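Protein modeling request. Please complete all fields; requests missing the sequence field cannot be processed.
Requester role: graduate student
Desired output: 3D structure, C-alpha coordinate encoding
Chains: 1
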Amino acid sequence: MIDIRLTGVVLALAVSSAACAAAPQVPACAAQSGYTPICGMAPAEDLELSPDAGFLFLSTTPGLAASHQSRLRIMELASHTVTDMVIERQATAGWGEPSCEEPQGTMGAHGIHLSRRADGRSQLLVVNHNGREAVEFLEPMRDGNTWKAIWRGCVESQDGTMLNDVAATPDGGFVVTAMFSLSAMKDDPHLEKLLDGRATGHLLAWRSSEGLRRLPNSQAPAPNGIQVSHDGQSVWFAAWPASGVWQYDFKQQKVVSKIVLDFLPDNLTWTTDGQLLTAGVPDVQTFRRCFLSHNEFCPSAAVVALIDPLKGSSRELLRAREGVVYGASTALQVGRDVFVGAFAGDRLLLLPDAMPAL
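Delivered output (358 residues):
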Protein backbone atom coordinates (compact mmCIF):
# COMPACT_ATOMS: atom_id res chain seq x y z
CA MET A 1 0.00 0.00 0.00
CA ILE A 2 1.02 3.66 -0.34
CA ASP A 3 3.29 4.99 2.41
CA ILE A 4 1.52 8.15 3.51
CA ARG A 5 4.76 10.02 4.27
CA LEU A 6 5.74 9.96 0.61
CA THR A 7 2.71 11.89 -0.55
CA GLY A 8 3.37 15.37 0.79
CA VAL A 9 1.05 17.07 -1.67
CA VAL A 10 -1.85 14.84 -0.67
CA LEU A 11 -1.14 15.55 2.99
CA ALA A 12 -1.12 19.30 2.41
CA LEU A 13 -4.48 19.21 0.67
CA ALA A 14 -6.13 17.19 3.42
CA VAL A 15 -4.58 18.67 6.54
CA SER A 16 -7.00 21.58 6.96
CA SER A 17 -10.11 19.40 6.91
CA ALA A 18 -8.45 16.69 8.97
CA ALA A 19 -7.47 19.22 11.64
CA CYS A 20 -11.08 20.35 12.01
CA ALA A 21 -12.51 16.86 12.26
CA ALA A 22 -13.32 15.32 15.61
CA ALA A 23 -10.95 12.70 16.90
CA PRO A 24 -12.19 9.30 15.74
CA GLN A 25 -13.58 6.91 18.28
CA VAL A 26 -11.69 3.64 18.54
CA PRO A 27 -14.19 0.88 17.69
CA ALA A 28 -14.92 -1.95 20.06
CA CYS A 29 -12.56 -4.92 20.00
CA ALA A 30 -14.93 -7.88 20.18
CA ALA A 31 -14.83 -11.34 18.63
CA GLN A 32 -17.61 -12.30 16.25
CA SER A 33 -18.51 -15.44 14.37
CA GLY A 34 -15.60 -16.22 12.04
CA TYR A 35 -13.04 -13.74 13.34
CA THR A 36 -11.28 -12.45 16.45
CA PRO A 37 -9.64 -8.99 16.43
CA ILE A 38 -6.25 -8.55 18.11
CA CYS A 39 -6.17 -4.86 19.02
CA GLY A 40 -3.97 -2.15 20.45
CA MET A 41 -1.13 -2.12 17.92
CA ALA A 42 0.21 0.07 15.15
CA PRO A 43 -0.95 -0.96 11.66
CA ALA A 44 0.75 -4.18 10.52
CA GLU A 45 0.75 -3.88 6.73
CA ASP A 46 2.65 -7.11 5.96
CA LEU A 47 3.19 -10.31 7.93
CA GLU A 48 5.65 -13.20 7.94
CA LEU A 49 5.73 -16.27 10.21
CA SER A 50 8.99 -16.67 12.13
CA PRO A 51 11.13 -19.75 11.36
CA ASP A 52 10.10 -21.37 14.66
CA ALA A 53 6.40 -20.62 13.94
CA GLY A 54 6.02 -18.96 17.33
CA PHE A 55 5.93 -15.32 16.23
CA LEU A 56 4.75 -13.02 13.48
CA PHE A 57 7.16 -10.51 11.96
CA LEU A 58 5.19 -7.30 11.31
CA SER A 59 5.94 -4.35 9.04
CA THR A 60 4.38 -1.27 10.62
CA THR A 61 3.10 1.59 8.48
CA PRO A 62 2.55 5.21 9.56
CA GLY A 63 -1.19 4.66 9.14
CA LEU A 64 -3.73 6.96 7.50
CA ALA A 65 -3.19 9.65 10.14
CA ALA A 66 0.63 9.38 9.89
CA SER A 67 0.72 8.86 13.65
CA HIS A 68 3.00 5.82 13.74
CA GLN A 69 6.64 5.17 12.95
CA SER A 70 7.37 2.72 10.15
CA ARG A 71 9.45 -0.13 11.60
CA LEU A 72 9.69 -3.88 12.13
CA ARG A 73 7.84 -5.40 15.06
CA ILE A 74 7.20 -8.89 16.49
CA MET A 75 4.05 -10.49 17.84
CA GLU A 76 4.26 -13.59 20.01
CA LEU A 77 1.47 -15.90 18.87
CA ALA A 78 0.88 -17.45 22.29
CA SER A 79 0.26 -14.13 24.07
CA HIS A 80 -0.38 -11.69 21.19
CA THR A 81 2.24 -9.42 22.80
CA VAL A 82 3.76 -6.97 20.30
CA THR A 83 7.25 -5.49 20.68
CA ASP A 84 9.74 -3.68 18.45
CA MET A 85 12.30 -5.89 16.73
CA VAL A 86 15.86 -5.18 17.82
CA ILE A 87 18.05 -4.64 14.73
CA GLU A 88 21.82 -4.85 14.95
CA ARG A 89 24.06 -3.86 12.04
CA GLN A 90 26.87 -5.89 10.57
CA ALA A 91 27.60 -5.54 6.86
CA THR A 92 28.34 -8.97 5.40
CA ALA A 93 29.66 -9.90 1.97
CA GLY A 94 27.12 -11.66 -0.23
CA TRP A 95 24.10 -9.86 1.20
CA GLY A 96 23.08 -7.22 -1.35
CA GLU A 97 25.30 -4.77 -3.23
CA PRO A 98 28.82 -4.24 -1.81
CA SER A 99 28.50 -0.50 -2.40
CA CYS A 100 25.18 -0.11 -0.55
CA GLU A 101 25.68 1.63 2.79
CA GLU A 102 23.73 0.85 5.93
CA PRO A 103 20.56 2.89 6.52
CA GLN A 104 20.82 6.08 8.53
CA GLY A 105 18.53 6.35 11.52
CA THR A 106 15.55 4.09 12.03
CA MET A 107 14.92 1.60 9.26
CA GLY A 108 11.39 1.60 7.92
CA ALA A 109 9.44 -1.46 6.81
CA HIS A 110 6.83 -1.82 4.07
CA GLY A 111 6.72 -5.13 2.15
CA ILE A 112 8.66 -7.98 3.79
CA HIS A 113 9.59 -11.51 2.72
CA LEU A 114 11.16 -14.36 4.69
CA SER A 115 13.16 -17.04 2.88
CA ARG A 116 16.02 -19.49 3.38
CA ARG A 117 19.33 -18.79 1.70
CA ALA A 118 21.42 -21.42 -0.10
CA ASP A 119 23.64 -21.75 2.99
CA GLY A 120 20.59 -22.51 5.18
CA ARG A 121 20.47 -19.14 6.95
CA SER A 122 17.20 -17.25 7.23
CA GLN A 123 16.81 -14.01 5.29
CA LEU A 124 14.24 -11.28 5.78
CA LEU A 125 13.98 -8.83 2.88
CA VAL A 126 12.49 -5.46 3.82
CA VAL A 127 11.32 -2.61 1.60
CA ASN A 128 12.55 0.58 3.28
CA HIS A 129 11.41 4.13 2.44
CA ASN A 130 13.16 5.92 5.32
CA GLY A 131 15.69 8.23 3.69
CA ARG A 132 15.89 6.18 0.49
CA GLU A 133 14.15 3.56 -1.61
CA ALA A 134 15.94 0.31 -0.84
CA VAL A 135 15.58 -3.38 -0.16
CA GLU A 136 17.36 -4.24 3.10
CA PHE A 137 18.79 -7.71 3.78
CA LEU A 138 18.30 -8.87 7.38
CA GLU A 139 19.08 -12.14 9.10
CA PRO A 140 16.49 -13.02 11.80
CA MET A 141 18.02 -14.75 14.81
CA ARG A 142 16.63 -16.12 18.07
CA ASP A 143 17.34 -13.86 21.02
CA GLY A 144 16.34 -15.55 24.25
CA ASN A 145 12.57 -15.89 24.18
CA THR A 146 12.12 -13.59 21.19
CA TRP A 147 13.75 -12.69 17.85
CA LYS A 148 16.13 -9.99 16.69
CA ALA A 149 17.58 -9.23 13.26
CA ILE A 150 21.05 -8.50 11.95
CA TRP A 151 21.24 -6.01 9.08
CA ARG A 152 23.64 -7.59 6.57
CA GLY A 153 23.35 -5.47 3.43
CA CYS A 154 21.05 -3.74 0.97
CA VAL A 155 20.23 -2.79 -2.61
CA GLU A 156 19.31 0.85 -3.16
CA SER A 157 16.96 1.75 -6.01
CA GLN A 158 17.64 4.66 -8.36
CA ASP A 159 14.53 3.87 -10.40
CA GLY A 160 12.61 6.98 -9.31
CA THR A 161 9.65 4.89 -8.19
CA MET A 162 8.13 3.93 -4.87
CA LEU A 163 8.89 0.30 -4.09
CA ASN A 164 6.13 -1.73 -2.48
CA ASP A 165 6.62 -5.46 -1.93
CA VAL A 166 9.52 -7.86 -2.38
CA ALA A 167 10.12 -11.60 -2.76
CA ALA A 168 13.34 -13.61 -2.85
CA THR A 169 14.23 -15.64 -5.95
CA PRO A 170 15.89 -19.09 -5.88
CA ASP A 171 19.14 -17.69 -7.37
CA GLY A 172 19.77 -15.50 -4.32
CA GLY A 173 18.22 -12.38 -5.81
CA PHE A 174 14.81 -10.81 -5.49
CA VAL A 175 11.92 -9.23 -7.38
CA VAL A 176 10.23 -6.06 -6.16
CA THR A 177 7.17 -4.12 -7.28
CA ALA A 178 7.66 -0.49 -8.30
CA MET A 179 4.22 0.99 -7.71
CA PHE A 180 4.45 4.42 -9.35
CA SER A 181 6.80 7.27 -10.19
CA LEU A 182 7.38 9.50 -7.19
CA SER A 183 7.33 12.60 -9.38
CA ALA A 184 4.06 11.54 -11.02
CA MET A 185 2.50 10.97 -7.60
CA LYS A 186 3.18 14.59 -6.64
CA ASP A 187 1.23 15.67 -9.73
CA ASP A 188 -1.73 13.45 -8.83
CA PRO A 189 -2.87 14.64 -5.38
CA HIS A 190 -6.38 13.22 -5.72
CA LEU A 191 -5.05 9.82 -6.84
CA GLU A 192 -6.99 9.89 -10.11
CA LYS A 193 -4.16 8.60 -12.29
CA LEU A 194 -3.08 6.06 -9.69
CA LEU A 195 -6.52 4.53 -9.31
CA ASP A 196 -8.03 4.66 -12.81
CA GLY A 197 -6.44 1.41 -13.98
CA ARG A 198 -3.65 2.78 -16.18
CA ALA A 199 -0.13 1.32 -15.99
CA THR A 200 1.74 3.37 -13.39
CA GLY A 201 4.53 0.98 -12.41
CA HIS A 202 6.48 -2.15 -13.21
CA LEU A 203 8.58 -4.97 -11.77
CA LEU A 204 12.27 -4.81 -10.88
CA ALA A 205 14.61 -7.75 -10.39
CA TRP A 206 18.01 -7.94 -8.71
CA ARG A 207 20.81 -10.46 -9.11
CA SER A 208 24.31 -9.97 -7.76
CA SER A 209 25.72 -10.44 -11.28
CA GLU A 210 23.33 -7.99 -12.97
CA GLY A 211 22.30 -5.44 -10.40
CA LEU A 212 18.81 -3.99 -10.16
CA ARG A 213 17.02 -3.88 -13.50
CA ARG A 214 13.54 -3.31 -14.85
CA LEU A 215 11.82 -6.43 -16.17
CA PRO A 216 10.72 -5.99 -19.81
CA ASN A 217 6.99 -5.75 -20.53
CA SER A 218 6.07 -5.72 -16.84
CA GLN A 219 4.08 -2.48 -16.85
CA ALA A 220 0.93 -2.73 -14.73
CA PRO A 221 -1.54 -0.66 -12.71
CA ALA A 222 0.14 0.11 -9.37
CA PRO A 223 1.87 -3.28 -8.83
CA ASN A 224 1.53 -4.25 -5.19
CA GLY A 225 2.09 -7.63 -3.48
CA ILE A 226 4.38 -10.17 -5.15
CA GLN A 227 5.41 -13.81 -4.76
CA VAL A 228 7.72 -16.07 -6.77
CA SER A 229 6.23 -19.29 -8.15
CA HIS A 230 7.44 -22.52 -6.57
CA ASP A 231 9.34 -23.51 -9.71
CA GLY A 232 11.06 -20.12 -9.80
CA GLN A 233 10.04 -19.54 -13.43
CA SER A 234 7.52 -16.76 -12.86
CA VAL A 235 6.06 -14.35 -10.35
CA TRP A 236 2.52 -13.60 -9.28
CA PHE A 237 1.76 -10.00 -8.38
CA ALA A 238 -1.26 -7.89 -7.49
CA ALA A 239 -2.30 -5.39 -10.15
CA TRP A 240 -3.99 -3.52 -7.36
CA PRO A 241 -6.42 -0.95 -8.87
CA ALA A 242 -7.13 -3.34 -11.74
CA SER A 243 -8.56 -5.85 -9.22
CA GLY A 244 -6.36 -8.63 -10.52
CA VAL A 245 -3.50 -10.98 -9.76
CA TRP A 246 -1.17 -11.33 -12.74
CA GLN A 247 1.55 -13.83 -13.65
CA TYR A 248 4.80 -12.65 -15.22
CA ASP A 249 7.00 -15.29 -16.89
CA PHE A 250 10.77 -14.68 -16.63
CA LYS A 251 11.66 -16.62 -19.79
CA GLN A 252 8.93 -15.16 -21.99
CA GLN A 253 9.48 -11.73 -20.40
CA LYS A 254 5.82 -10.81 -20.31
CA VAL A 255 2.58 -11.19 -18.39
CA VAL A 256 1.13 -14.57 -19.34
CA SER A 257 -2.05 -14.81 -17.27
CA LYS A 258 -4.47 -12.67 -15.26
CA ILE A 259 -6.90 -13.66 -12.52
CA VAL A 260 -9.77 -11.18 -12.10
CA LEU A 261 -11.13 -10.47 -8.61
CA ASP A 262 -13.95 -8.22 -7.41
CA PHE A 263 -11.84 -6.25 -4.91
CA LEU A 264 -8.41 -4.60 -4.72
CA PRO A 265 -5.84 -7.28 -3.77
CA ASP A 266 -2.92 -5.98 -1.74
CA ASN A 267 -0.18 -8.33 -0.49
CA LEU A 268 0.13 -11.99 -1.49
CA THR A 269 1.31 -15.00 0.52
CA TRP A 270 1.64 -18.70 -0.32
CA THR A 271 -0.32 -21.34 1.56
CA THR A 272 1.14 -24.72 2.43
CA ASP A 273 -0.78 -26.36 -0.43
CA GLY A 274 0.40 -23.96 -3.15
CA GLN A 275 -2.44 -21.46 -3.22
CA LEU A 276 -2.24 -17.70 -2.79
CA LEU A 277 -3.84 -15.74 0.00
CA THR A 278 -4.67 -12.08 -0.41
CA ALA A 279 -6.67 -9.37 1.32
CA GLY A 280 -7.86 -5.91 0.34
CA VAL A 281 -10.52 -3.24 0.27
CA PRO A 282 -13.57 -3.51 -2.02
CA ASP A 283 -13.04 -0.65 -4.49
CA VAL A 284 -10.97 2.39 -5.43
CA GLN A 285 -13.63 4.79 -4.14
CA THR A 286 -13.26 3.34 -0.65
CA PHE A 287 -9.50 3.68 -0.75
CA ARG A 288 -9.56 7.24 -2.11
CA ARG A 289 -12.09 8.35 0.52
CA CYS A 290 -10.15 6.83 3.39
CA PHE A 291 -6.71 7.92 2.20
CA LEU A 292 -7.72 11.55 1.68
CA SER A 293 -9.70 11.74 4.94
CA HIS A 294 -6.70 10.75 7.10
CA ASN A 295 -9.15 9.01 9.42
CA GLU A 296 -7.27 6.11 10.99
CA PHE A 297 -10.58 4.30 11.52
CA CYS A 298 -12.18 5.18 8.19
CA PRO A 299 -15.12 2.82 7.60
CA SER A 300 -13.95 0.20 5.14
CA ALA A 301 -15.15 -3.28 4.32
CA ALA A 302 -12.52 -6.02 3.97
CA VAL A 303 -12.14 -9.06 1.76
CA VAL A 304 -9.87 -12.09 2.25
CA ALA A 305 -9.61 -14.57 -0.61
CA LEU A 306 -7.86 -17.80 -1.49
CA ILE A 307 -6.59 -18.05 -5.08
CA ASP A 308 -5.80 -21.23 -6.99
CA PRO A 309 -3.19 -20.07 -9.55
CA LEU A 310 -3.36 -23.32 -11.53
CA LYS A 311 -7.11 -23.13 -12.04
CA GLY A 312 -7.26 -19.34 -12.20
CA SER A 313 -10.06 -19.35 -9.64
CA SER A 314 -10.68 -17.77 -6.24
CA ARG A 315 -12.93 -18.19 -3.23
CA GLU A 316 -13.67 -15.79 -0.41
CA LEU A 317 -12.71 -16.70 3.14
CA LEU A 318 -14.11 -13.48 4.59
CA ARG A 319 -16.07 -10.44 3.43
CA ALA A 320 -16.31 -8.30 6.53
CA ARG A 321 -18.57 -5.33 7.02
CA GLU A 322 -17.24 -1.84 7.65
CA GLY A 323 -15.57 -1.44 11.04
CA VAL A 324 -14.21 -4.97 11.46
CA VAL A 325 -10.72 -4.06 10.25
CA TYR A 326 -9.43 -0.88 8.59
CA GLY A 327 -7.54 -1.14 5.31
CA ALA A 328 -7.05 -4.91 5.07
CA SER A 329 -3.72 -5.51 3.32
CA THR A 330 -2.46 -9.05 3.83
CA ALA A 331 -3.50 -12.56 4.84
CA LEU A 332 -1.14 -15.22 6.16
CA GLN A 333 -1.74 -18.89 6.92
CA VAL A 334 -0.61 -20.18 10.33
CA GLY A 335 -1.69 -23.81 10.59
CA ARG A 336 -5.45 -23.87 9.95
CA ASP A 337 -5.77 -20.22 10.98
CA VAL A 338 -5.38 -17.06 8.91
CA PHE A 339 -4.06 -13.74 10.22
CA VAL A 340 -5.15 -10.57 8.42
CA GLY A 341 -3.03 -7.41 8.57
CA ALA A 342 -3.95 -3.84 7.67
CA PHE A 343 -2.38 -0.54 6.64
CA ALA A 344 -4.57 1.49 9.04
CA GLY A 345 -6.35 1.17 12.37
CA ASP A 346 -5.19 -0.62 15.48
CA ARG A 347 -5.67 -4.33 14.87
CA LEU A 348 -5.04 -7.63 13.18
CA LEU A 349 -7.76 -10.18 12.56
CA LEU A 350 -7.48 -13.84 13.46
CA LEU A 351 -9.69 -16.13 11.36
CA PRO A 352 -9.75 -19.43 13.32
CA ASP A 353 -9.82 -22.63 11.24
CA ALA A 354 -10.35 -20.60 8.09
CA MET A 355 -8.21 -22.80 5.83
CA PRO A 356 -10.02 -25.64 4.09
CA ALA A 357 -9.05 -29.12 5.29
CA LEU A 358 -6.78 -31.00 2.90
